[in-house]
Amino acid sequence: MPVVAPFRAVRFNPEKVSSLADVVTPPYDVISHEQQESFYASDPHNIIRVELNKKRDSDTAQDNRYTRSAEHFQAWRDAGVLTRDESPSYYLSETTYTDAEGNQQVRRGFFTMLKVADPHERKVLPHEKTFTAHKEDRFQLFKAVQANISPIFALYPDDLNEVMTTLDQAKEPLPLNDFVDPMGLPQKLYRVSDPEACRKVQELMADKVIFIADGHHRYETALNYRNYMRGLHPEAGPEALFNYTLTYLCSMSDPGLTVFACHRLVPRLDGFGAEDFLALAKPYFEVREVELEGDLEAAKAKLTEALAKADAKSNSLGLISHDTDKAYLLTMKPGAMAGQTGPDVEGPLAELDVVVLTHLVLDQILGFDNNARDQDHTIRYLADMTHVLQEVKSGRSRLAFLLNPTKVEQVQAVAEAGLIMPRKATYFYPKVLTGLVINLLCPDEEAEGCK
User: Fold this and answer.
1) Predicted confidence (pLDDT) at residue 410 exceeds the cutoff of 80
2) Burial class of residue 355, CB neighbours in 10 A (0-12, 13-18, 19+)
């Protein structure tokens, strides 16, 4: 079953970096161009320079965003800006945030090395399709830097909370870090290096199945990188560090675990508006108008409530369009998916709103096949409904389709059935920080386990 191992994290040196808030970021795939510029400006040692270096028109095979990432990473280590812990450890993380209902929540998890497993082993289960370009980008970064800069976010079943209880009892009394991150969320990080506690965590995790929540591209890249490194270093044993990947693990029973929807925007349908779409959609959906009054936040609240109520009856989607101030609620008619067959719509997948949207709306009605859905310029994915409303109102997107959040138990059911959801079917919140802990992938080092 899955293998987790403590590791000697590379971390920012508090003697060289006054505030972690100036040097950490969200994961690369949720960072906008404007945010990238902001992180660049915040501190010369911001992890953005390693995780998502800027492209240049003058880039060559010898000087490009990946080689610059590697140069920054090595220079910071040489200068002591980044230092490596002496003892293999797990790192317990606490993130405080406000949920969609305005309640304060704390999500708790821990950073570990997770041994990469081939798909047929069924130890680490994905639930989403991935984008080809993203995987190639991450692979080039792995090769250049030889480190996991950002973690995979994964879930594990633990109704009795045994893993986190073990970590709590063994954590160092004072946090390594206690700060407010760039998104305004309080963060705490504790170290657990006690060998007995580390062994117990390994034992507790050994009979569990791990479900990838966020970071499917990074996990597939970790598998590709492992295979690539095995070819370069056939002498390396099964415990060589490149057989592992940095992972943040959170219990599926954690009360602070939150999933948001990831909405779809269609930027390029010039001359095509709400009425055009509705004429095509009415054979499949009951349509109800939703009057949007007030500001964007009021519109968001009204749409969120309407979607939730409609979904209790049948699969439901929201539609907003640049050519009208109205919104539309689309509730699927009985039998509308009858013509949809194949592994992408079978079993628990058939119950998901995001599958209805992908196969009935995007594919059948609008004609966006799998290749089109793999292109960023065809469909954009945003979790913040307020941002979605802004994008459509401004005309940067012609249409947007709104979703209810996919539930954690649906993620588990799909993964256990060996099925795969459409891309960006979930948006786990908050995102796990990049740069809080870093895992080296040195080919000449092995996992030290719990010695």
Assistant:
1) yes
2) buried
Q: How much is the pTM?
A: 0.87
State the span(s) of the chain assigned CATH 3.30.1760. Answer: 262-404
Q: How many CB atoms lie within 10 A of CB 318?
A: 24
Q: Which residue has the tokens 């992180």?
A: 39
* CB 388 within 8 Å of CB 320: yes
Could you give the CA distance from residue 77 to residue 101 in angstroms, rounded to a whole number?
A: 42
Instruction: Say how far apart CA 171 and CA 209 lie, in whole Å.
Output: 25
Whole-number pLDDT of residue 271: 65
d(CA 167, CA 151): 19
Residue 132 CB contacts under 8 Å (≥ 6 apart), including other chains: 374
Helices then strands (H, E): number in the chain?
A: 13, 21
Give me the count of residues in the chain. 451
Q: Does domain 262-404 have CATH number 1.20.58?
A: no
Question: Under a CB-based contact definition with an 8 Å cutoff, are residues 112 and 150 in contact?
Answer: no
| Sign of the Cα pseudo-torsion (194, 199, 202, 204, in order) | negative
Which residue do the tokens 């995987």 mark? 135
Which pLDDT does position 433 carry in this prediction? 97
Beta bridge partners of 7: 89
CA distance 184 to 240: 37
Q: How far apart are CA 200 and CA 207, in angstroms?
A: 12
